[in-house]
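HUMAN: I'm a chemist; might I ask for a sequence paired with its structure tokens?

ASSISTANT:
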Amino acid sequence: MDPQMEHLVLELSDPSTRENALLDLSKKRESFPELAPCLWHSFGTISALLQEIIAIYPMLSPPTLTAHASNRVCNALALLQCVASHPDTRQLFLQAHIPLYLYPFLNTVSKTRPFEYLRLTSLGVIGALVKVDDTDVINFLLSTEIIPLCLRTMEMGSELSKTVATFIVQKILLDDVGLNYICATAERFFAVGAVLGGMVQMLAEQPSVRLLKHIIRCYLRLSDNPRAREALRQCLPDLLRDPNFTACLKDDVTTRRWLAQLLINVGHASAGAQVAQMQGGTNNA
């Protein structure tokens, strides 16, 4: 075990040295491949990280979070993201229900930089969990009501936060459990559909190919469900059939293919063919 890493992890348990240790470990975490197991199995360390999180709850409402406090807790969250990402600690992290400690951060609405950074870093921890296809993760997130929290960020977050939140919803949808959950009731489907539609409208004014890619993938996956496919025939945004709007995808073969398939699935075969033939070619898909 790396002696420098071991020393810094020990310093997390001492309130007088914790802040500097958080900063150093979060900066150097990529250099320590065994950091996650060390954090999880060393005495008192996870408790210390959770203390950092709980300590800022009183600053959430009314919103009094300072940049310094936000940076400090985000360093703790970066270490939890390590634990969520590592194959030896991911299940332990989930079984301890640690993501629940982050949900109050995703429930905030202040658009100041400290809050935006806090939401983005919290989403990064959830994003690390869903990157690996694991139905246990999806079941946990659905049972703890992550979807409404993601939808809130998709509506009011920064472009980067919207992108990460939409990626999380996309990964949930790509699991059969997630697709069935969202399509089980009209209320759930239309809640997701309304937010996706609102983001498409927003992208007409503030384009983002990266965000559009995730939105299209969510719609395409929804169209795999027969009931959702019928509903999308009525509520899919017209902009997705507008060549001027989708011209930004001309160099993105994969997303263009997704959009073409989506349009075909919901009964717009001619528009789908037009997307498929967009300048830039259809090879290398």
